[in-house]
């Protein structure tokens, strides 16, 4: 069984939200940050609380390792503990590492992130050194059911620098990536009908979404761009298929939901942030996750 089947089932049961634990220490209530022994300890306590509060309403979690690397060895320990905690709770975790090297180097990366202390269920990969940067990871798909999301058409402004270059009439670089992944998916398909390796497709370009979803029907999508980058539920829903086929990531809008709630409760002037607790932050994250889940489910039914 591929992990993509588990993710498909999780979406069916819990909705489409992927909670992004791109956790910066400054996102944590200041009193809780001061109380902790270090920023790394504060981040792990914050992550634990948010995981506990959302595990039943989030399809999966995406953990961006750059936020942990910046804290050095202690941060990498927090990264490893966060991955382990999610999986211990029965959750599904995507390690957002965007690796893209080849040959033995790729195999070493795969071993590092599909086994041992940094083990995740999925990773993110960059395809721009070619398919031989993707293929070494398939060893773990076949032996352990692991999966990956490969950058296809992202949600950042710079996507047009390369992803939108035309290679022929009506065909862009991101179409070439999608075609390669669709072939890979056909050869390594889960019971749910989606390939073990899916694609990262942002929801910020609404006009292309329906075409992409139709053209790549066997690719499961990791969908960034929701919330802070401008994407909405109606935009994300266009990249879904029959109520499934994708998870929609949100990071800051969930991690910092507690801060936004304080602003509202303070009448726009802001309430006393120093009184915020980690429990309040976790409850706010849960409310934000449920609100997002319900909005996407409603949009998907239209």
Q: What share of the residues lie within helices?
A: 40-55%
Rg on CA atoms, Å: 19 Å
Shape label: globular
Helix-and-strand structural type: alpha/beta
Number of helices: 14
| Major beta sheet summary | 8 strands, parallel, barrel
What sequence of helices (H) and strands (E) makes up the elements? HEHHEHHEHEHEHEEHEHEHEHHH
How would you write the strand order of the largest sheet? 1-2-3-4-5-8-9-10
Residue share in β-strands = 5-15%
Euclidean distance between termini CA atoms:
32 Å
Chain-averaged pLDDT: 95
Task: Work out the number of β strands.
Answer: 10
Poorly predicted sequence stretches spanning 5 or more consecutive residues: none
Write out key terms for the chains shown.
302 residues, alpha/beta, eight-stranded parallel beta barrel, two-stranded antiparallel sheet, 14 helices, 10 strands, 48% helix, globular
Walk me through the topology.
Blueprint: H1 3-14, E1 17-20, H2 30-35, H3 39-54, E2 60-64, H4 66-69, H5 72-88, E3 93-99, H6 103-114, E4 122-125, H7 138-144, E5 147-153, H8 159-162, E6 166-168, E7 171-172, H9 173-187, E8 197-201, H10 206-215, E9 221-223, H11 233-237, E10 246-250, H12 252-255, H13 257-265, H14 278-301
Parallel strand pairs: 1-2, 1-10, 2-3, 3-4, 4-5, 5-8, 8-9, 9-10
Antiparallel strand pairs: 6-7
Helix pairs in contact: 3-5, 3-14, 13-14
Written description of the protein model:
- With 302 residues, the protein is an alpha/beta fold.
- 48% of the residues lie in helices and 15% in strands.
- An eight-stranded parallel β-barrel has the order 1-2-3-4-5-8-9-10, surrounded by six helices. A two-stranded antiparallel ribbon has the order 6-7.
- The longest helix has 24 residues.
- The model has no long low-confidence stretch (mean pLDDT 95).
